[in-house]
Write a structure and sequence with these properties.
mainly alpha, 5 helices, single chain, 111 residues, 3-stranded antiparallel beta sheet, 59% helix
């Protein structure tokens, strides 16, 4: 088992606190958007960590794997996310916000 790097510890710390703060801020207007809370949380996480995979997001969000997979598929179909096969491990797909995803995140994140 590999030990967690300092960068990994910092990301985990940041994600934990960003989850508490970020969703609280965005959450108040979520009902006026076409997106579910889980979809918005995925957009937030990808904004904060632009190249992570579904497994990392699932651990962070504590969402059931099949539900997360369906939600990510929906976001890809809506054009908000892109999937790129990892060069290090061909079984893993890295997720990132598309141009449309960035615009939607910024629109949702307006004060």
């Amino acid at each position: 088992m590999q030990s967690e790097t300092a960068v990994g510890k910092m990301r985990r710390f940041n994600r934990f606190h960003a989850n508490i703060i970020g969703v609280g801020v965005i959450g108040r207007d979520i009902l006026r958007t076409p997106y579910s809370l889980t979809e918005v949380r995925i957009l937030i996480d990808l904004f904060r960590d632009p190249a992570c995979n579904a497994r990392e997001i699932g651990k962070f969000l504590a969402v059931e794997e099949r539900y997360l997979s369906r939600t990510i598929d929906a976001l890809v179909k809506k054009g908000l996310l892109t999937r790129t096969r990892s060069l290090e491990d061909g079984r893993v797909f890295l997720l990132s916000l598309s141009s449309k995803g960035w615009r939607e995140f910024l629109r949702l994140n307006k004060p």
